[in-house]
Amino acid sequence: MRALKVWRRLLGVEGAAVEDVNFDEEREAVVASVRPKRDLRNRCPHCRRRCGGYDAGDGRRQWRVLDLGVTRAYLEADAPRVWCPEHGVVVAMVPWARHDSGFTRDFEDEIAWLATHTDKTSVSGLMRIAWRTVGRILERVGDEVAARVDRYANLRRIGIDEVSYRKGHRYITVVVDHDSGRLVWAYPGKDDAALEAFFDALGPERAHRIELVSCDAAAGYQAVVRRRCPQASVCIDPFHVVSWVTDALDGVRRQVWNELRKGGHAALARTLKRARFALWKNPEDLTEGQARKVSFIARANRPLYRAYLLKEQLREVFKLRGDRGVELLDAWLAWACRSRLPSMVEAGRKIRRHRDGIVAALRHGLTNARVEALNTRLRLLTRLAFGFHSAAPLIALALFKFGGLCPGLPGR
To answer: β-strands 212-215, 157-166: how paired?
Structure first.
């Protein structure tokens, strides 16, 4: 085998010929002079069509390739510009690198794989590149892989939620496929405009095939779903519904505590103040001391105990599900309305406003639990990738990790 062919294998150069290999003493790096094969020259990097030459560009350029052992290596080649009827004057495509990149495809694919499996600081140290460069590489690889893979095929049941990725109320909206568990889409923001972008990418034909959508009760999300895919049933996540009533229960506890404190019953007020977590927890999870507190409240303060029973009864609604769950929900709404507890009456009104979505969740058994689980993993990924200053690299990394888009290791 000729030496130059061995170098082509070592450098991972596809669709190109190696002309010469030298060692740069100043940088202590291997530099290989290459040229694209004849049928890959003078092509637009965007549409890949053959185009007429425009000029020589800025002369010869270099691209970083994977290290040869402990030695850095570069490819060097001409970088002429071509004129494309669709994209105008652009630098000609090279088969070994993505457009507007100073790294080869293999180098960037390995960065994407490593960033998916370890933290960003380790990646930048191992590959000897700046940590900001890791983010830009993830964006490039993510854009190319996402354009090549159909992420929206066979969507029937989806979950929508938002997750915070940075201080200062920075959020991304995520869409998950309930059937496959994959992250389908992510976008900066948590308002209706963010979700509109998803349906724009999905298209009206595929939006019409969606049957069920799970989300929280955020008005913006529901309005967009009902406008863009009116045939889909919106399922309100039970966790958020129970949290409304839990907040109402805490409101009753605070009201009772204030009344006792102002009435001179300081000892009883302190007992109720410290019973907060006992009232919040599920009965099966109570410690012995917390169970005694709940029993004490049942004897000492009927209004607060009534609020506690309302919270537990609502949990039973979502345990039953189906038509029995719907019947129990309607009975619960009637009880909350006549409970004479202002916080619970208001919570009942809120639940009644979202009754259709709650009934859909009971009948179809669809919750946002899978989306919430993915959000937890996304927060961990955010901590591992600490240093991203925009959402784009994080979204690309999330699609690699949870969307099945991660490129394989070069040569495997």
So the answer is: parallel
Q: Which fold has domain 104-237+367-412?
A: Nucleotidyltransferase; domain 5 (3.30.420)
SS3 92: coil
CA dihedral 384, 389, 392, 395 (to 10 degrees): 20
| pLDDT attached to residue 309 | 92
pLDDT in tens, 345-389: 999 999 999 999 999 999 998 888 888 888 888 888 877 766 566
Q: What gap in Å lies between CA 182 and CA 402, rounded to an integer?
A: 6
Secondary structure of 214-269 in the HEC alphabet?
A: EECCCHHHHHHHHHHCCCCEEEECHHHHHHHHHHHHHHHHHHHHHHHHHCCCHHHH
- How would residue 174 be classed by pLDDT, with cut points 50, 70 and 90? very high
Contacts of 394 (CB under 8 A, 6+ apart): 165, 172, 381, 382, 385, 388
412 pLDDT more than 80: no
pLDDT of 126 over the 70 cut: yes
| Structure tokens, 181 | 């568990």
Q: Give the whole-angstrom CA distance, residue 163 versus residue 166.
A: 9
What is the mean pLDDT of the segment spanning 179-190? 90
CA–CA distance, 367 with 358 (Å, rounded to integer)? 10
Strand intervals (E) in 79-221: 81-84, 88-91, 157-166, 170-177, 183-188, 212-215
Work out the angle between the directed axes of helices 391-402 and 105-117 (0-180°, nearest 10). 80
Least confident segment among 3-17, 38-52, 89-103, 316-330: 3-17
Which residues is 36 bridged to in the sheet? 16
Residue 408 CB contacts under 8 Å (≥ 6 apart), including other chains: 109, 113
The domain segmentation of the chain, as residue ranges, is 1-102, 104-237+367-412, 238-363
pLDDT at 357 (0 to 100): 92
Distance between CA 6 and CA 12 in Å, rounded?
A: 10
Q: What pTM did the predictor assign?
A: 0.81
Computed over its alpha carbons, how large is the radius of gyration of the chain?
30
d(C-alpha 400, C-alpha 383), whole Å: 16
pLDDT tens-digit map of 201-228 = 999 999 999 999 998 887 678 889 999 9
DSSP assigned state of 285: G
Asked whether the beta carbons of 387 and 131 are under 8 A apart, the reply is yes
